[in-house]
Amino acid sequence: MNVHARYPTTPDEFVRWNENREGRREFVRGTVVEMMINTTIRHAVIASRLTAILLRQFPYPEFFVGSADVAVRTHAGIRYPDVFVDRGSPEHGDLGLVAEHPVLLAEVLSSSSVGRDFLEKAAEYTAIPSLRFYLVASQDEPRVWLWARDAQDAWQEPQETEGTEPVVSLSDLDATLPLAELYAGIEPRR
């Protein structure tokens, strides 16, 4: 007898189905999508440093800062950004599996994720009403791209910042991202 596992058909089913499973996957336009699980050490270092920088500036429980273990709901389904900042909400507490009010989402680029991070995820993330910033960080050199809402709540073109001297401002959230700290010791790839 052949037994076929039933795949989820809705974002809510997916979140429950995906809980405690090994590997990394997302739910996009009704389909379970297997994601890269073999990240480089450099990718992990940048994501960890970004999380640490943000943890110092966003106090818990008013904010939740975390990594790719918590889902974000988009109009296309469920994504797991490399780093997130969620404005906490008492009605959901800290036992949920989905960031309820994300204000910042970040991805660390890999060679296989460029199109997805700059096109698909940028379109999905910037459609989230609570989101103020979307950040993409290169793992090959000190360079980030930041999408930000303006005073009229409209998304601006992404601002590219390179080098280790600049400090990127997350002004709406009264936070900064010092690139010297994010990229300390990381030599550009040639």
TrEMBL record:
* Alphabetized InterPro entries for the sequence: Nuclease_put_TT1808, Restrct_endonuc-II-like, Uma2
Q: Where is the Putative restriction endonuclease domain?
A: 12-169
According to its UniProt record, what is one Pfam family this protein matches?
Answer: Uma2
Keywords, comma-separated and alphabetical: Endonuclease, Hydrolase, Nuclease
List, alphabetically, the CDD domains matched.
Answer: DUF820-like (cd06260)
Q: Recorded GO terms, molecular function?
A: endonuclease activity
Q: What is this protein called?
A: Uma2 family endonuclease
